[in-house]
Amino acid sequence: MKRLLLLRHAKAERAQPGEKDLDRVLTNRGRSDAARLGAYLVRHGLIPDQAVVSTSARTRETWTQVAKALGNAPPALFDERIYESSPQAILDVVFETEPKSATLLVVGHNPSLQELATMLTASGDLDARRRLKEEFPTAALAVLSFASDTWTKLHAHGGRLEHFVGPKWLETATD
Fold it and tell me: What 3-state class would DSSP assign to 36?
């Protein structure tokens, strides 16, 4: 079985005049939300074997906060193909994942993460699937599982949505 964790970067500062989008950093709330998502991963045993992170400042900072919560964080690959990408471009990066890795975390951007999660999802909790189609807020996490022994066999409508959470849903969650 393979498990794909798709995490949108946490809340970032608005770009300042002359600042590149790539250089935007997290707000205080963003840092806090990312740390809470990391704690959620630990609490639910969703520890990635590997992480692929967009090269933007806000995704790198999101990963740093998540990694702190994980404790013994896995290696991260910073890949520019995740930034301003299509769902297929992200999937192509996923296909390159070390075959021995069972759980991969991708830290990236919308709309591509939402589109990829929606494209890959075939089953799972109906309410979570509905929310996924409606929005993919900052610091949201979609966890998909696949009955596959290799990453290259992941395909449209081949996954089960196990979890779909974000900061506002974590505030009201009982787990």
Answer: helix
Q: Classify domain 2-11+23-172 by CATH architecture.
A: 3-Layer(aba) Sandwich (3.40)
* 3-class DSSP state of 143: strand
Domain boundaries, the chain: 2-11+23-172
Question: Model pTM?
Answer: 0.94
Quote the pLDDT of residue 55.
Answer: 96
**CB distance 17 to 136 below 8 Å:** no
Whether 63 and 50 have beta carbons less than 8 Å apart is answered as: no
Burial class (CB in 10 A: 0-12, 13-18, 19+), 116: buried
Residue 113: in which H helix or E strand, if any? helix 112-120
The pLDDT of residue 84 is above 70: yes
Q: Are strands 121-124 and 141-146 parallel, antiparallel or unpaired?
A: unpaired
